[in-house]
Each structure stands twice: as structure tokens, then as C-alpha cells.
Amino acid sequence: MIPRPLTVTTIQNQRVHIRCTARGIPRPTITWKRKRDGQILGGRKTNENTKDGEFVTSTITISSARTRNAGVYICTATNEVTPRPIRQEITLEVQGI
Description:
Number of strands: 8
Helix content: under 10%
Oligomer: single chain
Order of helices and strands: EEEEEEEE
């Protein structure tokens, strides 16, 4: 995983992006879920190849953040050669107006 802020803060009713980037050969697959209920979430993925490996970035976009969207989101990266998935927890804070 490429380090990102572990807390993302937004204001209620604003668009917010939560990003996760991983590098590996072969290119990792990133999945998302919410910690509180385990719901699997889709993310928009972009790929980049470099001489040091293959990067993949996955972004969850919430178009109008609400307090119910606040909580911990888990990003998990896997590929065929890593014996154990790598995960990062990112906390979303939604502040009222």
C-alpha cells in the first residue's frame, strides 16, 4: 500500500473522495468494504505501469456526504503472489454545517 491520510474529513453535503493506492507485480486488485456492516463497495480504478511495478488506485466517491457515511472504510489489496492480503483502514469524518 502507498501511504495516504488515514483520516479524511469533509463537510456534510460535500463531495468526498477516499483513495487507496497499491503497487505490485502482477498488478494488485483493490476491494473496499465498510467496517461497521461489512458491506462491499465498488470503487473507480485507475492503473499505471512504472519500472518499479504496477500501481493501481481505487477511489470511492460519495457525491453528497451525510453523517451516516462517516466511519471506517477498509481497502484491501491482493495479487496472485502475495500470500496474505494487505489492508488499510481509512476513517471518514463528516462534519455538520
